[in-house]
Design brief:
Elements lengths: L4 H17 L13 E2 L7 E2 L6 E6 H7 L4 H6 L4 E5 L7 E5 L7 E5 L2 E3 L17 E8 L3 H4 L6 E7 L7 E9 L3 E11 L6 E15 L14 E17 L2 E15 L12 E18 L2 E17 L7 E18 L2 E16 L8 E15 L2 E12 L3 E13 L4 E12 L3 H5 L11 E13 L3 E19 L14 E21 L2 E10 L2 E2 L4 E2 L6 E11 L2 E10 L2 E2 L7 E2 L2 E11 L4 E8 L18 E8 L3
Parallel strand pairs: 6-9
Antiparallel strand pairs: 1-2, 3-8, 4-5, 6-7, 8-9, 10-11, 10-35, 11-12, 12-13, 13-14, 14-15, 15-16, 16-17, 17-18, 18-19, 19-20, 20-21, 21-22, 22-23, 23-24, 24-25, 25-26, 25-27, 26-29, 27-28, 29-30, 30-33, 31-32, 33-34, 34-35
Length: 624
């Protein structure tokens, strides 16, 4: 049976587009005034951003009642997720069909991720500390270097401003889920102002079985998790135009997983730690010259404990990064010059061969231009790596405002992904001669915004070469060194698709919808990339009546395949979620959420569990 539900979401988007383009605007706003940082590494009005972007607010996160950041991301256009069980287990995030290790993830400008897997450790990232999230779709290597093939996700934690204030929340939910969070923030005035924001949170749940019957390590018990975190930002103004600051994040997730045999089961756990710290100074040396010097350090600590001491493994990835960014105003234009030095190192007590390090020295320049109705940008970058040598990337974009409400744009960019330490050095698998993957992307789109209605359509085609895959037998043809195959640059991949998005306000009702039609294909084999659907989308409608906001959300996905050979099919699914918030006073509010209200049974990874119907409710203080 063909799963066609995502097309209904597309029809909703198109219907809203027709309504918007054939009726007068219902509001006076003629431009999008949100400020985006990630798309150009500097604050920029969204109406001037050529890249395709999405912003997730703190209220969106709270209202979602989600148990993990991947749950929140899954509800965004252009994004799919795969997870081996509950919130405490391994997750993958695919942007526009790109692999999870083909995305760059930042927390307050601090680059995170494992140098061994090449991907971010999503299970260690807390929701409670997040103020908002920016997602930039498409290749961004010209600004961020290696791995920015599918896009960039930047997480911003809470920042201090205004009079001293305190927030707090307590929540309970299905599977004995409990959440506790609190924060204090504020800022002093005057010439030498000081801003601060500190938050801490804990969440725990009894969970559900991470595996299903058919999995080699199936155990029907519940696999719970505990996540604890603290985050903060401090800023001090030395003088007008001269600021220094510090950001930090420390999070730990202890999640149970299934491991063992049908006869013997162990209390197996995956313990994930994420530690970030960054210090910076921002200086306006001249009226038109803004300089930012930043040092950051991140640590990804992954411990797998099977319950048997001899099979416990630990891998620590560290990244140290210096960045000097200079933004120079030239009339309405901006010239950006950037210098970067990044060092990656891995420490592994159980796999000493991974204990390597490498450094990357980078220089980049970008120019953003505004001339009346015309927008343009060009950027170039060179990364000189101690392991794989020099890689040059670039991007160019152009946008034209057809009217005050409609804009057309097109961009072209190149990108690359650096081989992970696993692909280079893992015993009996890695090959130190592996080269970076390369990408060439072209996309074009239309954006409409009249204050009441927002619409966008984006078409893209990203051609990837030298893709690193696990091949058996290994092309090196050394049965002693590579008895089970190896990682090797062999495949060509095409990521192409169309994304539709719409939002419309009609009185007390607010409608949003998105649909993705994509074809992530391995051109070498002719097969679809695993765990990626050709169709997926979301639709939401909410209603506001005084202090009450209530709504329904629909998530849909078409069929996917769990394996590269496309033999194991994962069926399509549709999920219905319900949510409501009620403001008791100016400071107190209630939140309630029902996820998967119809108790749909589905899989995002073969023989791995997903939750059925779940409930969550919380009371919050101080959230505006």
């Amino acid at each position: 049976m063909t799963f066609t539900a995502p097309r209904h979401v597309a029809f909703t988007s198109l219907a809203l587009a027709i309504a918007a383009l054939t009726s007068p605007a219902q509001a006076q706003n003629t431009a999008i005034d949100s400020v985006i940082i990630t798309a150009s590494r500097a604050p920029q009005l969204q109406r001037d951003v050529l890249a395709d972007v999405t912003v997730i607010t703190a209220e969106d996160i709270a209202r979602s009642g989600a148990g993990s950041i991947t749950d929140v991301l899954q509800r965004q256009r252009g994004i799919e997720i795969s997870r081996n069980g509950g919130p405490g287990t391994n997750s993958s995030v695919f942007i526009r069909g790109a692999n999870s290790n083909q995305n760059v993830v930042l927390v307050d400008g601090v680059r995170i991720g494992s140098s061994t897997s090449g991907a971010a450790n999503w299970s260690a990232l807390p929701l409670q500390a997040i103020d908002h999230i920016e997602i930039v779709y498409g290749p961004m290597s010209a600004l961020y270097g290696a791995d920015a093939i599918g896009g960039v996700i930047q997480i911003f934690t809470k920042k201090g401003a205004g009079a001293p204030a305190v927030t707090g929340a307590v929540g309970i939910g299905s599977q004995k889920t409990r959440t506790y969070e609190g924060s204090v923030y504020g800022a002093t005035g005057g010439e030498h102002s000081f801003s601060y924001a500190v938050s801490a949170a804990k969440e725990e749940s009894d969970g559900f079985s991470a595996t299903l019957p058919g999995n080699f390590s199936f155990n029907g018990d519940k696999d719970g998790y505990v996540r604890e975190n603290a985050a903060g930002q401090f800023g001090f103004q030395l003088a007008k135009g001269h600021d220094v600051g510090l950001v930090f994040l420390n999070s730990r997730t202890n999640g149970q997983i299934d491991s063992g045999t049908p006869v013997i089961f162990y209390d197996a756990r995956s313990i994930q730690k994420q530690k970030n710290v960054g210090v910076f100074t921002k200086n306006q040396f001249l009226p038109l010259w803004h300089s930012t010097l930043q040092y950051t350090q991140s640590e990804d600590n992954s411990l797998s404990d099977s319950g048997v001491r001899s099979t416990t493994s630990s891998i620590i990835s560290k990244q140290h990064e210096w960045t000097w960014q200079n933004d120079i105003a030239i009339g309405a234009d901006t010239l950006q010059v950037l210098f970067n030095h990044r060092k990656e190192e891995v420490v592994s007590g159980t796999t000493p061969a991974l204990g390597k390090e490498r450094t990357t020295k980078s220089v980049a320049a970008a120019y953003n231009m505004k001339r009346g109705e015309h927008l343009a940008s060009v950027s170039v970058r060179n990364d000189d790596n101690s392991q794989y040598g020099n890689k040059a990337t670039g991007a160019i974009g152009y946008g034209y405002r057809i009217s005050n409400t409609l804009r057309a744009n097109a961009t072209f960019g190149t990108s690359f992904r650096a081989p992970s330490f696993n692909e280079l050095y893992y015993p009996l698998y890695g090959n130190p001669d592996n080269k970076p993957e390369k990408g060439r992307n072209f996309e074009a789109g239309l954006q409409y915004h009249d204050g009441a209605t927002e619409l966008s359509v984006t078409a893209y085609r990203n051609k990837l070469t030298d893709m690193l895959v696990s091949t058996t037998p290994c092309p090196k043809n050394d049965p002693v060194k590579y008895p089970y195959g190896c990682a090797y640059n062999v495949n060509h991949v095409t990521l192409e698709g169309v994304t539709l998005a719409a939002a419309h306000r009609l009185g007390a009702f607010n409608f949003t919808a998105s649909a993705d039609f994509q074809d992530p294909k391995d051109e070498t084999t002719g097969k679809s990339l695993q765990r990626r659907a050709k169709e997926h989308g979301t639709a939401t409608v909410d209603y506001t009546a005084g202090p009450l906001v209530a709504g329904v959300e629909w998530q849909v996905s078409g069929k996917r395949f769990d394996d590269a050979a496309n033999r194991n099919r994962l069926g399509g699914y549709g999920l219905v979620n319900l949510f409501a918030t009620y403001r008791l006073t100016s400071d107190w509010s209630l939140l309630a959420r029902v996820n998967n209200a119809t108790d749909k049974s589905y899989e995002v990874a073969r023989y791995y569990g997903v939750p059925g119907t779940t409930y969550y409710a919380s009371i919050r203080y101080g959230f505006k």
